[in-house]
Amino acid sequence: GDVIHRMLTATQYIAPLMANFNPSYSRNSTVQYLDNGTVFVVQWDKVYLQGKEDLGSFTFQAALHSTGRIVFGYKEIPVPVLQISATQHPVKAGLSDAFMVLNPSPDVPESRRRTIYEYHRVELDTSRITSLSAVEFTPLPTCLQHQSCEMCVTSELTFNCSWCHVLQRYL
């Protein structure tokens, strides 16, 4: 895609395995999804690496639960992930989030400069991604789960949050 798309996909992703896959290589290759209201699952089934189809097919999935839990499941990983070339496409696994800010450009008054700020990333050790393995991400509690000042004060959360009476929320 365009520059913005490439910049955002480099910094905003939920990726069980990001690599230069070619789903159109085989009729048996599919990327499917399922949403039953409590879990959203995307499965890459029998997909091949572009130009390295002789290595075999990969089958893996990502399951995003409504509770915030994320599970990556790896059924078929025919080669060690560390051996996948990142020349044509980045190779990574994990989670990352970012946001984009549009600032006026000092040079051209009608245009805006786009700046992407990555604020959190969790990278998996790709040497541990093997066939028949899984990774589970469990969300940590946050102050946003509280609905009142009393709940915040009696909470045993290990970070410093405070209740704002004006906004009726935690800061």
From TrEMBL:
UniProtKB keywords: Membrane, Signal, Transmembrane, Transmembrane helix
Localization (cell): Membrane
Major subcellular location class: membrane
Membrane topology note: Single-pass type I membrane protein
Keyword Transmembrane attributed: yes
UniProt-listed InterPro entries: PLXDC
Cellular component, GO, one term: membrane
Family: Belongs to the plexin family.
Protein name: PLDX1 protein
Species the sequence originates in: Sclerurus mexicanus (tawny-throated leaftosser)
Lineage of the organism: Eukaryota, Metazoa, Chordata, Craniata, Vertebrata
